[in-house]
Amino acid sequence: MPETYNPQLGREHSYPYEHREEERDWHWGMIININRCINCNTCSFACKSTWTSGEGEEYMWWMNVETEPYGGYPMGWDMRLLDDLGKDETIFEAAEEGEAAKGYVAQKEEWEYPALGDDQVHGEYPTGDVVESDLEEDEYHDMWQFYLPRLCNHCKNPACLAACPRKAIYKREEDGIVLLDQERCRGYRKCVKSCPYHKPMYNPETGVSEKPVGCFPRIEEGNVPRCVSSCIGKTRLHGNINRGPDAGHPNGNTDAAAGRSPVNYLAKSDEKIALPLYPQFGTRPQVFYMPPYHVPPEFLTQMFTPNTDEKRNDWPGSTFEESIKIVQDRVRNPSHHVLGILQLFGATTRLIETYTVKEHRVKGWDRKGNKVVDMPFEEEMEVREGEMWTNQ
Ligand code: SF4
Ligand code: F3S
Q1: For a surface tag, which of 74, 107, 308, 327 has the fewest beta carbons within 10 Å of its beta carbon?
Q2: Contact 281, 91 (CB under 8 A)
Q3: Quick one: the chain helix, strand, coil %, rounded to 5?
Q4: For the segment 309-332, what is each residue's pLDDT rounded down to a tens digit?
Q5: For 174-206, how does the pLDDT look when each residue is reduced to its tens digit (9 = 90+)?
Q6: Nearest CA to ligand 2 atom 3
Q7: How does 320-330 read in b/e, with b if 16+ C-beta sit within 10 Å?
Q8: Can you give the residue ranges of every domain in the chain?
Q9: What are the phi and psi torsion angles at 149 (to 5°)?
Q10: To test ligand 2's pocket by mutation, which of 195, 198, 199, 209 has the most ligand atoms within 8 angstroms of CB?
């Protein structure tokens, strides 16, 4: 089986598919700021009404929002598989003879409760007591929960693609979106079993499977996916995750800024601030999350880091837990540059290819080099002379 270097794990591992992800100029990517999500599910319904409202698609939620730590759709989708993996083992290394990846087939009843555990908190509520906060800076809540929006990650090592014996799943050359060709599909459901994020789903009416499409018709027209444009919490930013600091002007248009995309900055710059979900599966997911800052780091470590004993120089702390604390602090107290990028979230339905943050203004340009955002993000504060008027 070919070996591939996985930068999210910092090592090589087997992956049964030759590919050239790093050379693509353009690759679908998304950042989600978990701290802004209010579980309104506008994203889920926007996706469902666009893509999965037909016969046999009733239980298909390509976009869903879960309450952590108790929610999950299908039930326990993450823990069932994680429990089966050995220490430092990807789903490709753990694959059984004749299979491309280790997987899990969720049963009917596990798909029946898309809102299981909604708003349930972790921790004891002090009965008969008033709730008082004695949190010091750098402490975390005793009782906590958070919302985790989940969607297809358009992985760089897609397990669904590797697993299909019909080669019915492919990555688009132009943007890395992972699509399923329903004409080729024969309903073998290896994709359903192998995706560790449980996003390909079988349609019993048509006898073939379906998977999320990354809103490709909107991307082709230079717009962001519907889950991004409809999000009332402005939790998301979508764009070209492969556009690094050395990239030129979009479309050669020198009116626009050259260089990296804002999603690339948040996920790939030295100021690591957005993290992939369960990188230990090994699929290189391309949705990156800004972690919640009120949640104990030990929980987030197993969810957003490779969670191995190995020391990693590309993480900010000497351990993953310490690194998570540093990332949480960066999210809670963003740098001036990140504060500027945060204003781009939900600012336009156009896809922002490049940007600048200069002084107190942030600007963004689309793939053609047209300016689509230009706004201030910090207001000057004026302190007036004289005595403060107080209410007697
Ligand atoms: Fe395939 Fe699942 Fe990755 Fe989406 S999240 S590309 S369905 S392996
Ligand atoms: Fe392949 Fe999945 Fe269809 S494994 S044949 S795409 S059901």
Answers
A1: 107
A2: yes
A3: 20, 15, 60
A4: 887 888 999 999 999 999 999 999
A5: 999 999 999 999 999 999 999 999 999 999 999
A6: 185
A7: bbebbbebbeb
A8: 219-376
A9: -70, 135
A10: 209
